[in-house]
Amino acid sequence: MSTPSSEQEVHEHGVTEAVISYPQFLWKALGVATDGNALFYVWMTALTAVWLVGINAFAHQIVQGQGLTAMTDHVSWGMYIGNFTFAVGLAAGAVMMVIPAYLYHDEDMHDVVIVGEILAIAAVAVALAFVNVDIGRIDRLWHIIPFIGRFNFPVSMLTWDIIVLPGYFLINLHVVGYLLYMRFLGRKPNPKWYIPVVLLSIVWAVSIHTVTAFLYSGLGGRPFWNSAILAPRFVVSAFVSGPAFIVLALQIVRRFSDFYVGHKPIVTLINILRITAVVNLFLVGAEVFTEFYTGGSHVAAAEYLYFGLHGKNALVPWIWTAVVCNVVAAGIFLTVDPRKNLWIIDVACVMTLFGLWVEKGLGLIVPGFVPSTLHEVVEYLPNALEWKISLGIWALGLIIFTLGLKIAVAVFTGTMHVDAAHDAGEV
Amino acid sequence: MSDPSRRTMLKGAGATLGAAAFARAVAPITEWTNDLSVEGFLQKHYKELTVEDMSAVLARIERETEEQYGAKVSVEDVRPTPGVQFAYALNLSVCIGCRRCAKACHEENNHDRATNNSYIRVLEMTNGSLNLEHGTVTYDHAVPAPGKFYMPVQCHQCDNAPCVRVCPVEATWKESDGIVVVDYDWCIGCRYCEAACPYHARRFNWSKPEIPADEINPDQAYLSNRIRPQGVMEKCTFCLHRTRRGKLPACLEACPTGARVFGNLADPDSEIRWVLENKRVFVLKEDLGTQPRFFYFFDE
Ligand code: SF4
Questions:
Q1: Tell me, which fold does domain A23-423 have in CATH?
Q2: Which residue from A108, A172, A196, B168 has the highest number of Cβ atoms inside 10 Å of its Cβ?
C-alpha cells in the first residue's frame, strides 16, 4: 500500500493524462467503428437502412398516434411491450457469462466476458427504445424523470423499471468502458474500480427481470399474468435467451475477427443452456398444468393462447411453433456434443431464441388481454407499422452491438491503443 | 480502398448520405411539432398549478379548441365540494339494455365520433348466471330479450384503485369526493392503468378525437369532458362538471327506466344511502379488493 501523499500524486498524474488520452480513446473508437472491410460496410448499411425505415414509421406514429398500430382498448399492449420484455431477458441473460467469469474465476470465460457485457448494453438500449415507441406522449417523457417530473415511487412498478433499466445500462457501460480504456492505455485494470460494479451487475441483472415480471404479475385483474411463478419464469428464460445469443455471437466474433475465442467458453455456455432450457420448460409446464387442471374462467386466456377461444385463434400457430422450438432445442442441448456438432447447437440456439421471443413476447402480453376484463374476445396481431418500428429497433440494437464488439476487438487485439506519450493528442 | 484520403472521403460521403436519409425519415415530425406549444410542453402537474397558472391553462385550452375544432367552449376547473362522497348504484332488475346511457355519455363527454366511444359498456347477460363469460356487449336485437338481463359497466371509481397505484407519473388519482380523474395534460400514455383496470373502464386516445363543431358540448371541465389530446388516457368522471355543480350524471338522466341511482353517500337522507341500506347490493369482482363506488342491486 502506498502512502496517502504518493497516492495523491498518482491520482493527479492520472487526471492530467486522462484529459489527453480519453478524448483520444473516443476519437480512435470512432475511427474503428467506421472502418472495416466490405462485409462490414454491407452489414452496417443494411442495418442502418432497416433502422431508418423504422424511424420513418415511428415519425408517422408520433404524428397520427398509436391508432396506426393494431392495438385497441381491448389489447392495449402488443408487439412493442412484448419485444421490450424479451429484450430485458436478453440483457439479464448476459450475466450468465459474468457469473462463471467473476464468481467461478473461469479464465477462458474471463477473456470473452466483455461480449456479454456489450450485449447487456445493446439489449437494454433496445428495451428502453421499445418503451419509448409504446408511450403515447413521447414529448412528456420528462414527467417520468425523478425529481423533475412526478415519480410515483415506490408504488408503481413501472418506476422501479425506470430505475433498474438505465441503472443496468450504466453499470455495464462503466465496466466495458473502464476495461477497454485501461487496455487501450496498456495498463492493468484496477480491480477496485470495476470488481464491485461487476458483482453489483449480477444482482442487478436478476432485478431487472424480476421487476419487469412484477410489472405484470402484480395486476389482480389479469389472471393470466397474476401468477407468482412469473418472475422465476422470466429469470430462467433470460438465462436461456442470453447464453443462446452469446453462443452465436462468440462464433461470429471468432470467424470475422482476430479476437481469440476458445472453445471452452462456448462449451460452458452450452452446459448452462442444458440446465436452464430444461428448467424453463418445467416452469412453463407447471404453469400450464395449474391453468388447465384448475379450469374455470381462470383458464380462458391460456386456452385462447394454446387452442383458441370462441373460434378466435390468431396466436395458436405462433405458440405451438414456439413450443416445438423450445422442446427440440432443449433436446439438442442435452444430447448433442458441442465439440463434434456445434452447428446443430447453433440451430438449436436460433430455435430457442425464436421460441422465447414468442413465449415472452406476443405469447405473454396478448393473452393478458384476451379475453378482456369483461370477457370480450378481441384479437390482436401486429400490423406492418409495428413490424417496421420493431425491426428498426432491433437493427439499432445490432448496430450498437456490432460497434461495441468492433471497438472491443480492436482494443483487445492491440490494433487500437494509446499513442506514445510525446504525440498524445495528435491523431 | 487503401488510400487513406480516399477512404476518409468515402466515409464523409457515407455520413452525408446517412444524414440526408435520416432527415427524410423524420420529416413527418414537423407536422406534429406545429401542434405543440411551448406552454403546453412545460405545463406542470395539475396539483402544482397555481390559480393564475390554471387560468392561463384554461384559456389556452379554450383557444386551442377554437383553433382546432372551430367551437367556442368554456373550460373550467371544477373542484370537489368538501364533505361530499359520490357513489352510484344500478338496478339490474329494471335495466333493459337500451344503451341510452352509453349514447348520452358519448355526447356529453365529447367522445370521438368515428369510434363511437363511450365510458359505458352494456353487457347482455343470461338469466341464471352472473359470470361475465356468459355476457356479450355486441348484442344487436330488440331489447329486453327474453331470458336475458343487462349489466352496464363503467368506471367503478374504486377506493383502492389499481389504475391509480400503477401510474408511474401520478397522472391519475382519486379526488376527495371519490372520483378518479386523469390529468390529460400530464399523462404520458403508457397505458399501464388500462392494463391494471379490472373493469375495462379506461380508454386511450389512439388518435386525435374528431367531432363536428356543432356537436361539441361547450360546457367543459379540465378534469372531465374537455376534448382529450391524442395519446393520453381518459375515463368516466361521474360527469364531475355536472355532478359537482349539483346536477346528475348524463347517463342517469338519459336512462328511461330509472335504473340508475346517484348521490352523496355522506348524506344520510340520500337515495343512494337508502339503496345501499335496503337492497341486495353487490359489487363486481369483489374478490379483487378494489372497493368500488359503483354498486349493482336487484329489486324485491
Ligand atoms: S396511461 Fe397515463 S394515466 Fe395511465 S398509467 Fe400511464 S401515465 Fe398514468
A1: Formate dehydrogenase/DMSO reductase fold (1.20.1630)
A2: A172
